[in-house]
Amino acid sequence: MAVSNPLTSLVDLADPRIVSRLVIKVGSSLLVARGAVRRQWLAGLVAEIAQARARGQEVIIVSSGAIALGASRLGLEKGGRGSLADAQAAAAVGQILLSGLWSDLLAEHGATAAQLLLTLDDLEDRRRYLNATATLMRLLDAGAVPVVNENDSVATQEIRFGDNDRLAARVAQAAKADAVLLLSDVDGLYDRNPREPGATLVPLVSGVSADVQAMASADSGSGMGSGGMTSKLQAAQIAELAGIALVIANGTHDRPIARATGHAGGEAIGTLFQPGRKAGARKAWLGGRLRLRGALIVDAGAAEALRGGSSLLAAGIAEIEGEFGRGDPVAIRDCEGRVIAHGLAEYDAAECAALRGKQSSEHAAILGYAPRRAVVHRDQLVLK
Ligand code: GLU
Predict the structure, then answer these.
(1) What class, spelled out in words, does domain 10-284 have in CATH?
(2) What's the pTM value of the predicted model, to 2 decimals?
(3) Ligand 1 atom closest to Cα of 95?
(4) N or C: which end of the chain has fewer CB within 10 A?
């Protein structure tokens, strides 16, 4: 994460020194028109994604379109959104087409697509959040392009995100991305309903205030996605709290990323929501939410390493307190009882006890399965 270089203008979105990891959300209305995939347009976007990767940016795609595509294939009314059962069936059919499409188009640029289907709980529950984070990290590390969607075929009303705008913001959080680009069928946020005369595009928002919310119209115009501006503002709020920049831009044009960032010959066009705080904002947010379930007491060497920015390894743990589970927040204290940090445990208390004082190379033999390297990863801890 490029925490020392905050994103201050739309142009920065294409700068790998500022945005090293980018989540791009593609709305249904961009992907599907009259029941068919807009393949040529999508090929153009994938070429831009390949260019972003070539200049050193890691990209995660959040792709809508499964319901729209599946509904057309099955001949379901109301674009497959007439009932939950229709949406689930449409998504099951559409998703397989969608993943094939991304996979084929990315492969034309030598990139490997990786599919992740998530439900709300996968990112709200700490343990599952850590699992999703680990998977995303590993995929990016391996050079793949994660293509994420909600697992609509199994998600019921109660456990649904329902829109991919908020899903994209949560995925950005889990993946520790620097920015989210929501590609939609509007240029960005307007100061009033864009159909009203005199409506002007708002290029920069610092804080989603009540005034900003009043500008949003729930109508996205296309009627195909479930997003609209309201869910985009909710996504902006999630991103803002997590210290991640969010951009809304119009994907209906050719080379939408170049257009949004001012690299297509004209001015940059879109709305940039600046992240709430600068350096360490994500950790500040994490720190604010911690309710501790236990403690790890560490030796002097580990205490020093932690203060220097390292992860906590099992070898440095002297004692364990409490009955915490994997993903639970714990305090990390030195042997004098001083609190060094708060963080999320990668192992439960029993596993920590088994690994205490042991080198990482011994962990697999002790636990009987492939372990995580750290007991508390540095990305999941806040120094006190
Ligand atoms: N997950 C839905 C789909 O793939 C899209 C949700 C949305 O419209 O934001 O069709």
Answers:
(1) alpha beta
(2) 0.74
(3) 4
(4) C
